């Protein structure tokens, strides 16, 4: 039985945003980042298909259209083994986590030297 996050099904959102609407551009960028999308190229976002993600991307597509842009939500079913490997690699956050772990270790080392305000700022 396949889970709802099977890598045999992917969602691709292709957007074109008006150059004059910086607010919409920022809102879309934040929304895609918040959903955990990988960027295939400027304006093309990828997610493994999963519960609620299709609806979330559909809502963002409608928002983009209302803001004067264009948006197309595509389903990619059964990509080749090479494509699956390439897609999955886009979601590898190992390097980001290693950096975070390093920063947490630095914080823990210096925690005794911070006053409350400096400690909050470091966090």
Helix content: 40-55%
Largest sheet: 4 strands, antiparallel
What is the number of helices? 5
SS strand fraction? 15-25%
Structural class: alpha+beta
Average pLDDT reading? 89
Radius of gyration: 19 Å
Q: What are the secondary-structure elements, in order, as H or E?
A: EHEEHEHHH
Q: Kindly give the count of domains.
A: 2
Distance between the amino and carboxyl termini:
42 Å
Low-confidence runs = 1-6
Shape estimate: flat
Please tell me the CATH architecture of the largest domain by its name.
2-Layer Sandwich
Strand runs, count: 4
User: Reading side by side through the largest sheet, how are the strands ordered?
Assistant: 2-3-1-4
Q: Would you tell me which CATH topology of the largest domain applies? A: Alpha-Beta Plaits
CATH class of the largest domain, please?
Alpha Beta
Structural overview:
This protein has 123 residues and is of the alpha+beta class. The protein has 2 domains: 9-92, 2-Layer Sandwich (Alpha-Beta Plaits); 93-123, no CATH class. It is 50% helix and 20% strand. It has 5 helices and 4 strands. It has helices at 22-35, 53-66, 81-89, 94-110, 116-122, and strands spanning 9-16, 38-41, 44-48, 70-77. A 4-stranded antiparallel beta sheet has the order 2-3-1-4, with helices on one face. A hairpin with a 2-residue loop joins strand 2 (38-41) and strand 3 (44-48). It is flat. It starts with 8 loop residues before the first strand and ends with a helix. Mean pLDDT is 89; it is low at 1-6.
